[in-house]
Each structure stands twice: as structure tokens, then as C-alpha cells.
Backbone:
């Protein structure tokens, strides 16, 4: 069961961050008529997959990923996509106050009842952690009664030890095809993984089906 | 990008010598290296749009090649270069791609700044 929301604001640093664990949720909200804004901070300029023989180089990759991001948004039915113009792998080195203000401005502009982002410190990539930190920083400064709910993604190897089990589980089976289309839209990043995944799905591998049909979040707890 | 032809790369390196040029240099194992292999010591470095003027540029060794730039009072080098191209902005882009097509090192030389 997915809870009705006023407006959902999704904040991630890389094109494709939304695809793996949130695209089913985003698609479902849009189907429910809930407005969704996706702010993507970088264009994944430092992505390593260039292929061999290469299909891109360091300087053409950002344009490829920008187009993929737009295609992914279309696959989810998302119309409010915001590309924030920062550079991949540099978020943690930006001024912390600037990052908090970037998030605060997005909140002011969209007035979300729910924000989806990464859990700071348990999201492996320094950009993920820095993005989560900026969101927690911005929301933490709001009056408690006005704070949107925060759903976070965490996937560090020690996540279960620290956070236990995710408390929000969305069944997104109805959006499975849109989720697959979103993942495939990011072909430069996902083509290898999807080849394997589509085979597993065709074989009805229970773990792969669970991955496709369930999206899990940790509600951020303020203390 | 195509596989390095050392003679051609050498000529290209010569063509940027003794000019103010913008450099992009990067080495990486990927941000996830220590996630997939716990205990992996992840190191890398990145500079972009630093201006230098080198007096001698050389490609050395068999593939993966080494490329070194001698500066008036210093050095730049990259190890593991396998591919190169000159793009539509006349920039010399060199990269080291591992067998899976993942970038491990990049060295790029341009007379105009790279985008942000
Ligand atoms: Zn990411």
C-alpha cells in the first residue's frame, strides 16, 4: 500500500540513482496523480563505463547521460525533472551551507509532503552520502510540525546492523514495466546488469522478482 | 576513441608542446571498489582545467602505454593509457580502459577549457 502524498520530491546526485530502487515508486505516485519532482544534482560525468571498444569518452559521457536521464523521466511519466548542474564526485567538497540552501530552495519551491533521498553515511558513494546530509540538514532546520517525511535508501554493507530492517515497503508490481523501461533508459550504465537481470526475470528467479516488485525505504528518524 | 597508435599519439603530443594547455588528469578505481570488495584500499586523483605549458611530451612502452609531460619545473604522467581520440574541439583525449570497458585513467589536453 502506497500512502497518498501532496507532492513528492526526489533528490539524488546521479542519473540512474532513481532507476534501481525508486523508479517503481515514482511511477506509481505519478499514476496516483501525486506530483513528483526529481532533482538530479549531477550528470554522472565521472561514470567509468565507457565500453571496450568504447561508445563514449570522458567528455561525451555527460551528454549521453543527460539524454538517458530525460528518457528515464519519460519512462516514469515524470515531467518535473531538474538538473542541478553540479559535478559528479564533487558534492562532498561543495560548501555545506550552499548544499543545504540548494535543498531548502527545492523544498520551498515544491512544498513536498515526502522527500526521497539517500541515508547519509550508509549510501556507499560519497555523493550519495553528501546529498543525504544536505537533505537532512535542510529538513532538520524546519519546524518539526512542518517537516516533510523523509524516506531514505541505504545499502552500505553494515546497513542492517545500524538501521535494522526497512520500515516502508512499496509493492510496485503494477509499475514493473515502467521500472524496467527506466533502467533500460540508462543503457550506458545498466546494459550489462540488465542483460543478466532480464534472464533471471524470465526464469522467474524469486530474488530478481522481489527486486523488481518491492522498493524499500528507511524513514529517517529525528532525535 | 580508438586503440593507441603510438606514432600518431606522439605526433599529437608534440603538437600541444610549448603552448598553454588545459589538463584533465584522473585515476580511479570507482567509488564502489571498497563496497564490492571490503578492505579494498581505494585511491585516486582528479585535476581538471589546470593550465600548464609542457616542453616535452612522450608516449612510452607497449600498451597499456605511459604518457609523460615534462614541465619547466615539474612533471605530469599517466600510466595505463589504451585509447585516444581527437574530438571535434581539437582536444586530445586519452584514456585507459580495462577489459570490461571501465575507465581507470584519463589524461586530456586542450587549448580551450574543458566544461566545468
Ligand atoms: Zn549514484
Residues:
Amino acid at each position: 500500500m502506497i500512502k497518498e502524498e501532496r507532492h513528492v520530491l526526489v533528490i539524488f546526485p546521479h542519473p540512474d540513482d532513481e532507476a534501481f530502487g525508486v523508479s517503481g515508486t515514482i511511477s506509481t505516485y505519478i499514476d496516483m496523480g501525486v506530483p513528483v519532482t526529481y532533482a538530479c544534482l549531477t550528470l554522472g560525468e565521472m561514470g567509468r563505463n565507457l565500453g571496450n571498444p568504447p561508445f563514449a569518452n570522458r567528455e561525451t559521457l555527460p551528454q549521453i547521460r543527460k539524454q538517458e536521464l530525460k528518457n528515464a523521466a519519460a519512462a516514469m511519466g515524470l515531467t518535473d525533472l531538474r538538473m542541478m548542474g553540479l559535478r559528479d564526485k564533487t558534492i562532498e567538497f561543495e560548501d555545506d551551507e550552499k548544499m543545504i540552501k540548494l535543498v531548502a530552495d527545492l523544498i520551498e519551491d515544491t512544498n513536498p509532503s515526502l522527500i526521497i533521498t539517500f541515508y547519509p553515511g550508509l549510501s556507499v558513494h560519497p555523493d550519495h552520502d553528501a546529498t543525504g546530509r544536505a537533505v537532512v540538514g535542510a529538513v532538520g532546520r524546519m519546524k518539526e510540525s512542518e517537516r516533510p517525511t523523509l524516506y531514505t535508501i541505504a545499502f552500505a554493507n553494515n546497513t542492517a546492523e545500524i538501521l535494522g530492517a526497512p520500515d516502508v515497503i512499496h509493492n510496485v508490481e503494477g509499475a514493473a514495466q515502467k521500472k524496467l523501461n527506466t533502467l533500460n533508459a540508462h543503457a550506458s550504465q545498466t546494459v550489462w546488469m540488465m542483460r543478466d537481470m532480464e534472464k533471471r526475470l524470465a526464469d522467474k528467479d524469486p530474488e530478481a522478482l522481489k527486486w523488481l516488485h518491492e522498493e524499500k525505504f528507511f524513514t529517517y528518524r529525528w532525535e | 576513441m580508438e586503440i593507441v597508435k603510438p606514432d600518431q599519439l606522439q605526433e599529437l603530443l608534440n603538437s600541444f608542446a610549448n603552448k598553454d594547455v588545459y589538463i584533465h588528469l584522473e585515476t580511479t578505481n570507482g567509488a564502489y571498489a571498497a563496497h564490492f570488495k571490503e578492505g579494498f584500499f581505494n585511491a585516486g586523483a582528479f585535476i581538471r582545467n589546470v593550465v600548464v605549458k609542457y616542453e616535452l611530451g612522450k608516449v612510452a612502452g607497449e600498451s597499456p602505454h605511459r604518457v609523460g609531460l615534462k614541465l619547466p619545473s615539474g612533471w605530469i604522467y599517466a600510466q595505463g593509457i589504451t585509447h585516444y581520440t581527437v574530438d571535434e574541439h581539437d582536444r586530445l583525449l586519452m584514456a585507459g580502459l580495462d577489459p570490461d570497458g571501465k575507465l581507470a585513467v584519463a589524461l586530456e589536453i586542450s587549448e580551450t577549457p574543458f566544461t566545468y
Summary: Chain B touches chain A at residues 1-2, 24, 26, 28, 30-32, 35, 38, 46, 83, 85, 87, 91, 93, 95, 97-104, 106, 108, 114-116 (CB under 8 Å). Chain B has two helices and nine strands. Residues 59 and 67 of chain B are 4 Å apart (CA to CA). The domain at 2-110 of chain B is CATH 2.70.180.10 (Protein Yojf; Chain: A;).
